[in-house]
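PROTOCOL LOG
Step 1. Enter all chains and additional molecules of the complex.
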Amino acid sequence: MLSTLAEAFRLVAAPDVLLAILLSSIYGLVVGSLPGLSATMATALLVPVTFYLSPIAAVATIIAASAMAIFSGDIPGCLLRIPGTPASAAYTDEAYAMTRKGEPELALGICLWFSAIGGIIGTLSLILLAPPLAEMALNFSTFEYFWLALLGLMCATMVARSNPVKAIASMLLGLLVSCVGIDNPAGTPRFTFGSTDLLGGIEVIPALVGVFALAEVMRSMTEPEPPKMPRRKFGSLLKGMWKLTREYPWPQLRGNVVGIIIGVLPGAGADMAAWVSYSMSKRFSKTPSKFGTGHPEGLIEAGASNNASLASGWVPSLLFGIPGDTITAIAIGVLYMKGLNPGPSLFTEKASSMYALYIIFIIANIIMIPLGIVMIRLASKLLSAPRSAIMPVIVLLCGVGSFATGNNLFLVVTVATFGVIGYVMERNGYPVAAMVLGIVMGTMVEQSFVTSLIKSDGSIWPFFSRPVAAILAFLTIAAVLWPVAYWAWGMARQAKMATQRG
Amino acid sequence: MLVGLGAAAAYGGSLLPPVPGQQIGPNVFPMVVGIGLLLCGGLIAFGVGSTLEREAEAELAAHSDQPAPETAHSPLMNGAKTLLPPALLLAYVFVGDALGFIPTAFAIVLTVALAMGARLRLALPLALIAPVFVHLVFVKLLRVPLPPGILPMPW
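Step 2. Run joint prediction.
Step 3. Record the structure below.
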């Protein structure tokens, strides 16, 4: 234990890792604070760079960049009432109300301080939750994995803030994409239409870059430029934070716990956590009428929640290869590439790497405070860069970056295609995150499904006869039936209202 | 609004069903997925769950302060602008090898910047500097073989 910990510190203390953390932190802060560029996009564009780093440095860049981006998304939210990332959207109004009251320092200070605390508590949950779950998961067979993957997919569709049927459709679309190619249990080429490029299947990373980065650029093409940030001087940012920490222990705790739970749920990430926490804070507050007028309570709870969800999103990702959110969906691709294949054995065989990961998380959340203060002070200067100068470079990076993941021009075609798919889906209310989950997990679902069927000689019974499998199966089926039940309930209510009126 | 949503749902539904359930060896999984998509397409066409969607949209609209998308341009123009980034990437695939990275990237950056309304004074230097910088990082630091084409860089 102690020697592994020492080994982990040695891994993190390597100069390339420390440099990677610092540079990607700055990168994450800048990208997150630019409206229209999300934390997921920041991560997606980092991937080609991680290919050329050592495994620990690669993971470190993702962790640091995503944590910083989620925090710095709050900056334009506070100052301009435009969320820098979707994860800040839930409490942008609240933060801006504070700025209007003449307290931008307080709003930004709360975002920074409680983001960092939320991130650290989220990391603690990862440290505490993952090892016992890993021990349990060692006993899992393909039956359990099948249900777990399916449950993950269904969770992602349930929590999507949209039509559950459309979410399921997106998820199935993603599964269909994962079917393409020869990489299936039987090794038969599927849906390749005679193309050798499609034979290798559709690469996950370029598809994600397309969906998250290129589609975002496409959207910004027709949107008006956001307003400029007014220049202003800030007073002390951390003044009064300790007092607030003691004043609102419950909202903080609740925000962190909700963030952790939502982070663990597959597909639901920081934006979901912030929405849920903000509305919960309002419901349980002693003074709900103060919400929306620049009241710190909701800001504390939701600001902590979205950062807490980041770390706990790694729990299912590391244990089962089931992404906890869209950021870890990308991270899983990197983990495979770096030989840190997700699975319970990761915690026994590569324990030092796991400890290193925890340490990186904590370091990232601690240096968030000084770097964040610098960023806030520089924000008005940095954010004056016009969007028409940033987006062209991002298009270029989408192309070159995805090319770099395999030195194959077909990957650039993949980016372009998925950019269009992502844009069209988003426009029509199909949650993109569900599709991404389908793409990432398709192979796993199919593999475990087919292997289980072969093991059981085509019988369905063993899928339900093992105790853990049975529980997971029950949960999955309940999740499938939920939209149907909701629909039936709505119909019944409508019928009742019609009879009452008539 | 309702009609638009219904049309989009029907359109989505009409897109989804033609999923081939393959009959060769590993057909089980695509078939299951295909049937699922078919069912979803049908449900969406019937408007199941659209109330939930509207609720979410209303909540989002209440929270965001974004002005409605600009209507100064014609929808056709907007569509063309939207499709510009992927189209340029495809162009990169086709002419990148012949022209080389720097000229192609120059064209991409310049076109996107101008399409987004940047003035030439900003777009031109950006299009000159950004490709060289990207080239430097990817070729020199990351050793990605970008096509040299007609304008090889000195490194």
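Step 4. Note key features.
Helices of chain B lie at 2-15, 28-45, 50-63, 75-99, 101-115, 120-141.
The first helix of chain B runs from residue 2 to 15.
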